[in-house]
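Suppose you are handed only two things: the residues of a chain and a line of SMILES describing 3-isopropylmalic acid. What would the bound structure be? This form records exactly that question and the answer produced for it, so the two can be stored side by side and reused later without any lookup.

QUESTION INPUTS
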Amino acid sequence: MKLKIALLAGDGIGPEVAAQAVTTLQAVEETFGHEFSFTEALVGAIAIDKQGDPLPDETLALCKESDAVLFGAIGHPKFDNDPTAKVRPEQGLLKLRKELGLFSNIRPVKIFPTLIEKSPLREERITGTDFVIYRELTGGIYFGEKFLSEDGTVASDLCIYSEEEISRIAHLAFKAAKGRRGKLTLVDKANVLESSRLWRKVVTRIGESYPEVTLDYLFVDNAAMQLILNPSQFDVILTENMFGDIISDEGSIIGGSIGLLPSASVGEDSSMFEPIHGSYPQATGKNIANPVASILSAAMLLDHFELKEEAEAVVRAVTLSLKKGIVTPDLDPNSKYGTDDVGHYIASNIRDSDDFRGLNQENIGLGKSTII
Ligand SMILES: NC(=O)c1ccc[n+]([C@@H]2O[C@H](COP(=O)([O-])OP(=O)(O)OC[C@H]3O[C@@H](n4cnc5c(N)ncnc54)[C@H](O)[C@@H]3O)[C@@H](O)[C@H]2O)c1
Ligand SMILES: CC(C)[C@H](C(=O)O)[C@@H](O)C(=O)O
Ligand SMILES: [Mg+2]
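ANSWER OUTPUT
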């Protein structure tokens, strides 16, 4: 298959982890005989520095004409520490999501069996964790009208949703639940927020068309607690933009590190693949960032284009690296391996995959190798 991929590495550790996703995709390309092209473009703080715009027109145009976008991370402390800055790196990411119509952000949370002891939670709590968050990505409080009074003492952000925005992602989430364990949990704050009550009404109505899926509801504060208390109760979580942002960072540490959690953002015509973590500025240039979230985002890209065997090969290679202890310091403070070592190990395992391709994965203790 030929794929034209826009590569938006961004800021901080973005370029370091995205480089390993590219190395992985190049290994897949060679091993399975595909043709992937990568075209780089600016986004985030580096784009502000170079062009005064966090999403230059040519970057957006490239993304629109590409088959998919591979995204690193954006963000820089000079903006984080300046609440008065009018132009900000995050605006580039948000505009990109909106312009590409990426309304559904899919964030799978699965425990790698060999990492169970790396989790801050006890083994008996996290065993069996395997859920996926469907986070609405182009609406809600992120995109509602903003207000700041002239004297700078009063501010507001409007949280606004339409039935249409809720129903299109709800259908995707119900379909996902149907293909998994048949459970969908809507996370909202319907005891307080009008917008959440609209979510409940619309999702409940849509649920009637999916009789094989059990729908339940959790208030977001309770959901935040349940995620830690009993994460294996969840199958598909459907939620609005900001709640999804928050609970996915929380969910990521169940498996040991946010550096493991990938995501796919999809719309009608476009798709983008990015780790859920940010630019981790403290780690920039140190070769310590975990590239696995970025590499698994590349696996989600392959899966999205129906390259199932290829996606599985990536997940298997990642699983093997974790099993062998070829990991970055977030998973093992004494590790001698850097971001690039982990990426190269994974890529070389895809290239030499004869030694484990086709083997019964259970026999070699890798468990299930699908990503979602
Ligand atoms: N999608 C994105 O590009 C994105 C996402 C979140 C935050 N941000 C931006 O990133 C900047 C920093 O934000 P933050 O510190 O709140 O979040 P962050 O995700 O960058 O880092 C938070 C913590 O998570 C850990 N971490 C993150 N990525 C890791 C990796 N690959 N390997 C190992 N550990 C990792 C580190 O302990 C780090 O201190 C901000 O400017 C923020 O706006 C961007
Ligand atoms: C950087 C920020 C705009 C972004 C978000 O809040 O969506 C990030 O936290 C994420 O999870 O992708
Ligand atoms: Mg986030």
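WHAT STANDS OUT: Residues 120-255 form a domain with the Isopropylmalate Dehydrogenase fold (CATH 3.40.718.10). DSSP finds 13 helices and twelve strands in the chain.
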